[in-house]
Amino acid sequence: MRWRDIGESENVEDRRGVSGRGLAFGGGIGSIVLLVIALLFGVDPRNLFNSGDSGPNDPGARVSSPANRAEDELKSFSSSVLASTENVWRDVFSQNGRQYRVPKLVLFTDQVRSPCGLSSAAVGPFYCPGDEKVYLDLSFFNELRSRFGAPGDFAQAYVIAHEVGHHIQKLLGTMDKVDSMRERMSEREANALSVRLELQADFYAGVWAYYAEKKGLLEAGDVEEALRAATSIGDDRLQREAQGYVVPDSFTHGTSEQRMRWFRRGFETGDIRQGDTFNIRSP
Ligand SMILES: [Zn+2]
C-alpha cells in the first residue's frame, strides 16, 4: 500500500505503555499504596499517575531501540490508514447529504479501559460505540502475520478499515438497532444478527478499499492481502484452530467465505447501498 503520502491523522490517542500495567493500579487500594510509598521516599506522586501522552516533548519517554522504531513505523502506518478512512468516509457521507464524525484510534499495550469495559489485547482490535473509538494493540499485526498467516500492510489496513466500518454502523444507527433487537432474542438468534453486523463491517472495509484504489493507494497484491486476512480471521477458522471443530450457532463474525465475499462486494461496487446484510435470507 502506498500510505506514506496520505499524511497522518490527528485523531490518534497514544496510550501505549501506560494503559496496561498502569491500569492494574488504576484507582483503588493499589494507587493509595503507591502514593504512600511515593511520599515516604520523596517521589513526586505526579510521576506515578502521569498517564497522559508521552509525546515528543517528553524526553524521558522514548528509548530509540529497534523495536520502538518498528512500532513507531506501525503507528505512522495506522495513523495514515485512519486518515485515509477519514477522507473516504467524509466524501461518501457528504455525497449522501450527511456529515461524517471521525472516530478516534486508541493505541494501547496489553489492556485498556473504555466505556466497553476493561479489555485485554487478546480480544484483538475492537470498536467501542460508547466513545466512538477504535482500540488497537499494535502487536496484533504481528499475530496477524505469524498466527493467522495474513502478512502484508494491506491486511493490517483491512483490520483498521473493518473497525471503522463498525463506526459507520454506529453513525448510521445500525448498531443501536441491532443492540436493541439482540436484547429480545435467543442467544442463537443474537449471534446470527452479530454475524450480519460483522459482515457489513467487512463490506464497509471493502468500500473504503474501493476508494483507496481509485486514489492510487493500492499496490499489486494488496487486495489479496486483505482477502487473506478476512479468510484467516473468520470464525470457522478460528474455532477449528481452537477446538478442532466448528459450532455454527456460536459464530459471531461469519465464515471465511462470507467475510471474503462481503469485503469483495464492497470493493467491487464502492456503493454503500449494496451492503445490506440484514434483509437477505442468508448473508
Ligand atoms: Zn468486527
N to C succession of SSEs: EHHHEEEEEHHHHHHH
Proportion of strand residues: 5-15%
Radius of gyration: 20 Å
Query: How would you sum up the major sheet?
Result: 4 strands, mixed
- Coarse morphology: globular
Structural class: alpha/beta
N-to-C span: 29 Å
Strand order in space, largest sheet: 1-2-6-5
Uncertain regions: pLDDT < 50 for 5+ in a row?
A: 19-27, 49-61
Measured as a percent range, the helix fraction is 40-55%
The number of E-state strands comes to 6
User: Number of DSSP helices?
Assistant: 10
Ligand set: zinc ion
Mean pLDDT: 85
Task: List its traits.
alpha/beta, 283 residues
Q: Can you offer a commentary on this structure?
A:
The structure is a single chain. By secondary structure, this protein is α/β, with parallel strands linked by helices. Helices cover about 50% and strands about 10% of the residues. It has 10 helices and 6 strands; from the N terminus they run βαααβββββααααααα. The protein has a 4-stranded mixed β-sheet with strand order 1-2-6-5, covered by helices on one side. A hairpin with a 2-residue loop joins strand 3 and strand 4. Helix 5 packs across helix 7. The longest helix is centred in the N-terminal third of the chain and has 30 residues. The radius of gyration is 20 Å and the shape is globular. About 35% of the residues are buried. About 10% of the residues have low confidence. Zinc ion (ZN) binds next to helix 5 and helix 7.
